[in-house]
Request: fold
Amino acid sequence: MMDNSRNPLPYGNVPQPIRKDGAGATDYGPRDVMRDLENPDMFIPPITDAGTIPNLKFSFSDTHMQLYHGGWAREVTARELPISKTIAGVNMRLTPGGIRELHWHKQSEWAYMLYGRARLTSVDQDGRNFIADVGEGDLWFFPSGIPHSIQGLEEGCEFLLVFDDGYFSDLSTFSITDWFAHTPKDILASNFDVPESAFAHIPNKQRYMFQANVPGSLESQKVSNPYGTVPKNFTFKLLAQKPLVTPGGTVRIVDSSNFPISTTIAAALVEIKPGGMREMHWHPNNDEWQYYLTGTGRMTVFAASGSARTFNYRAGDVGYVPFAMGHYIQNTGNESLWFLEIFKSNRFADVSLNQWMALTPKELVQDHLYVGPELMNALRKEKWPVVKYDRNLNTPE
Reply:
């Protein structure tokens, strides 16, 4: 949706890069008008934007879709979004019975279930196994090197995978079929103490993802284990967590403090209601990788040295904020904006600009900003991650 306060739209419904203060000029093309409509604050930047902040946005819709019998997968890594050095993301769909084959990674895997249900299996380094079902809003975490599998249940499933390395590609995982295909049959026979004929029909290459039957109940697939099950649960029900409710929305935080196995990924599930804003803040621990679930929004990032840039986001987009850069996110639509904030860290941490100022001597703040009691008396010592945004107070540019 175009922001008409910034664009007078002198040529019907075709937006033109002209700010209300007269800056800019018409663009006769060639151009992609639909892209301009989707990115009004990139096409007509706020007057406060300046500098050379790199691209902090990439859409999964612009990625290469890998299609398989059993589902599909697509990824956003540092290849697609070069600034994203700490986190890579994979969006994956499995059909009913579709299997992401038995595999493991050098990187840890964190996941958020977007739709449906899936069956997970894993075994740790001490031979302790894990078999569980996950549904919408659930998380899982597999530490680096721990083998696992994912299979769609009756309705199939779709999920977001997050890896703690921006250069990771899901196509470079260690897969059981790939290893078998590249191991001599006499070695396989010796390893498993069976004749070579037992491997007469093994795949000749990695399967990665394939179609199978929907698995039976958890009870029917239970595998008894003399070593027991894993000591820390690999799954977490995020939507069952009571959210922090503020005037502008809600926040649910998950990290190693409440999901102990998740030692390299911390996250927050944020809801910004219409007319709400993720407050001005920054993160003192690492870069922030975002995944937008529903709605539309805009984020302005402050990079110091007189630099700031605004980006527009919608469902399916990835956003990124480099370490310690100040930012805020506004809901620009008429429905709640839901997104994930994800960090390569064992703990979630943010610093609130409002709270920082409230807990600093008033005279010191006033000497910096030339402000009076109206602002100073409104500062909050309690952190409100999501606040109300009154569009009627927005100063025209």
